[in-house]
């Protein structure tokens, strides 16, 4: 009696169907192929990887740029004339696009691992291309509107580099599973990349990798325009909130009215922070200093904060706080200095000279000095910028608001600098401090940036968020050099061991052949092992040759030979051959 065997036995491949179905809309077995991917298909994979890397860079930028979100919105306002929180749509679109591209990349890596062709579905191709072009346009736009902000990336690496290194090391180590069976050129590129990752910490400059005994005192916190996250900037309620939140000093922007009264205003016009468009609609675009003090005092300087909610904090306010904020008026310099004097605090003044057509253009200095004297605050506790009219300033402290060489600082007799954090490198800070030049860095709103500057020895920082920084009793992470070196070397050795183990495991037959010679090894078995990562029709042919070779060598009819059964390929069972 003749026993018939099925010519082909298919095993269910649910996971493969899921991966190929979502990635390339190839849900059926006959739609899939294990032939080598064409150049066109590989091009789309390269575009997918490029989109992922660009989005990773873009997402990281906005993650660390939280320190300056309000500055970005102000830059957009200065161009458009309308206040909108542009960070919300940017963050939302970034999260959606990054999640989508990351998911596709994971599916692509599964394709490579399973030996499937990287046939990306046309709808996904449109999505990848749209995401790539949108991200590129976003980078170009930010570079045009907010180009100075790119510097925060290098500064943030002073805090995040050790942790990013571990993440990159894990990723590169895991990729070894995919590249272990590839040609020499691919392996060479991978090895060079791996060595670069191993040695990357040699280039790190991390102030918080230091001994605890070397840590300088906690930097003083200056309330920049008060506490503008909790109340309208440059108002009395804002300065009161800053002092309540533990600010050591107050900082304000000073302009001079047409009748010689110094008042506090950040912008050139009154449009953003007052209701001037309702009270004086024909003059809403005029310079703020071209109004007299009576007109300025009649404006509401708090309602805009409740309506625009620039820091997303209005919902945390009580009804009493909202009522008080809604009735705020523009603050004069005398009022602010009197508050600082009562609190035994100091003040940092950023003075904006009036335009040349202003009637107080030549007497603005005396107007400001008169206000300081009238407030009754000690002149030694008042610092102002910019560093002009030094010969006329006697008893007051002056600070330069630009980065200067030590030669220039010595020539001008400067003892204090107020610098943007992007212009205050670690080496510059150390040089200034070594020469007894005090440094104040602004704006510092995030704990990680505050921690970096603390470890760098900065004496004081100017912040929009004193309520956040006061909750940082210690740098968010501090590690000795010996401890970090141990972690670095140990992680490199573990990674190296894993990579060697993966290469040995995936090239076991080739290694055994080189060690023991060819006499006990089947040629098809050797070749099959060497190309397991690149499945094709030739691989299937070699599998068939290997099966028949084993049969011809006397394999027992009761034995079972199985080659890659998880992929549904040929197998021999109880005297029958099935495919």
From TrEMBL:
Domain GP-PDE: 219-473
GO MF: glycerophosphodiester phosphodiesterase activity
InterPro entries membership: GP_PDE_dom, PLC-like_Pdiesterase_TIM-brl
Keywords from the UniProt entry: Glycoprotein, Hydrolase, Membrane, Transmembrane, Transmembrane helix
Bilayer topology term: Multi-pass membrane protein
Subcellular localization, as worded in the UniProt entry: Membrane
Keyword Signal: no
PANTHER family per the UniProt record, alphabetical: GLYCEROPHOSPHODIESTER PHOSPHODIESTERASE DOMAIN-CONTAINING 5A, GLYCEROPHOSPHORYL DIESTER PHOSPHODIESTERASE
Family under the similarity heading: Belongs to the glycerophosphoryl diester phosphodiesterase family.
UniProt protein name: GP-PDE domain-containing protein
UniProt organism field: Anabas testudineus (Climbing perch)
